[in-house]
Write a structure and sequence with these properties.
The protein is mainly α. Helices cover 79% and strands 0% of the residues.
Length: 383
Amino acid sequence: MTAKKSIKTILPVFMTFIVMGFVDIVGVSTGYVQKDFGLSDSLAQFIPSMVFIWFFAFSIPVGILQDKIGKKKMMNIGIMVTCLGMLLPFVNYSFVMTLVAFVFIGIGNTVVQVAANPLLQEVTSKEKLSSFLSLSQFVKAITSLLGPIIATYMAISYGDWRFVFLVYALVSLTSVIWLWGTKIDETIKSETPATFKSCLGLLKDKFVLAIVIAIFLIVGADVGMNSNIQSFLMKLHGLTLENASYGISIYFTALMISRFLGAILLQFLKPIFFLVATTVLAIAGTLMILFSTSELMAQGAIFIVGLGAGNLFPLVFSIAINKMPSRANEISGLLIMAVVGGAIIPPIMGAVSSNIGVIGSISVLILCFAYILVLPFIKNKSL
């Protein structure tokens, strides 16, 4: 693959990671919807659940269908479903319609995430996959960073935070057109056609099972952090909703910086070493939030969590795909199925917070991150 051809095919694939990042708007949306409709903490945390529950239901079927129709076609389907979800809040703004909108966004994002990493694998070399996955997550983090800023700007300047969805819908259409017009040779094929049995059969491998659990907890912790930052800052330091929303941008700024640095450092460092170091950093930052004595200290702690958590998903994903490259569609389906952790962990945090307080919900985050430290002890040549 020539450098010119590589750039021509990589750029539209990278843009799909921008669309992938649209799902993180659920974090700041949760705060605004909770305020607009007077929801309790527990009920509000079901909003992210409406997004991430579909990863469990559709990831394996999407992986199987993708094996038949191709990664690029599957990606375009996912982006169009996402675009539809972005437009629904303007049909009728109610709590129920908001939930329906996030259902479509969740289903679309499921398809996008199942297709994205195997599609990126088609346009990069095996040796650079970990680095490019971190770089692609850096691209995704740009979207995640801008989401709360755009929503807050729209709320303050135009009186309606929902205009952020119109911006996202336009970008989605642009991505579809660009990717559709780009020729990508899909040369990495499954050894045998993917089936439900073959996908679930991979769970018999202890390493694969451990990786699936890790993705479940990583995404759960990320979504739990994203959707609770406003609550942490409001309850611990008395901030208003609008001011607390900027804490989400601090988090995603850290994610963006972390992934950019990760793309560089992974050219030289072993993935497993980087995984352990960043996990420890995420745990340290989470503890700092709990013991923060000022708004500034809490914001610094949020930044540290983002620095630590930023590369966990692409690191674990690349380790798994590199282990079984010829079964990337099945592996991707399983791992994206585990993204359902984003639907399970936030409600647990909400319930714990309602009964115990902030200390309980932060403890849930720490336990999620702590599991990642188990992975180095699972013997496998990929590590």
